Amino acid sequence: PSHRMQQPLPPYEVLPAEVSMEELPRSTTVLMEESPPQPRDHLVWSLFTTIYGNFCCLGLLAFVFSVKSRDRKVLGDYSGARSYGSTAKWLNITALVINIIIVIIVITLVSLAVSGFLSRMNPPPKYGRN
């Protein structure tokens, strides 16, 4: 039974009689491959967008795509992870720009309302004849 479990040895060549092992050069070559950069999933950014600026559910969509990107990365599908991560990034950027515009509009409206309210409370002084 132990003979069946053993793997056959790889083929080899016998050295000629005039060559000895001491005469052969000794060197080792190690090939180092750089691993591809890990695709980004933007999960934390999507979480904050979902909590703080979820305009038209863009933050929630970004969070879903971020989770999908992380799942693809765990499975080793880097192209799928990169695609889902890119979609999450652009959804986060879109939500951020829309939220900045909304904040600017709200600040403008509030400042106009406050200035109109203050101008009614303190009318300007009248000069001249009554």
TrEMBL record:
Official protein name in the record: IFM2 protein
TM region positions: 43-65, 90-118
Pfam families: CD225 (PF04505)
The gene coding this protein: Ifitm2
Keywords: Membrane, Transmembrane, Transmembrane helix
Family: Belongs to the CD225/Dispanin family.
GO cellular component: plasma membrane
UniProt keyword annotation of Transmembrane helix present: yes
Localization terms from the record: Membrane
Lineage: Eukaryota, Metazoa, Chordata, Craniata, Vertebrata
Chief localization: membrane
Keyword Acetylation: no
Domain of life (superkingdom): Eukaryota
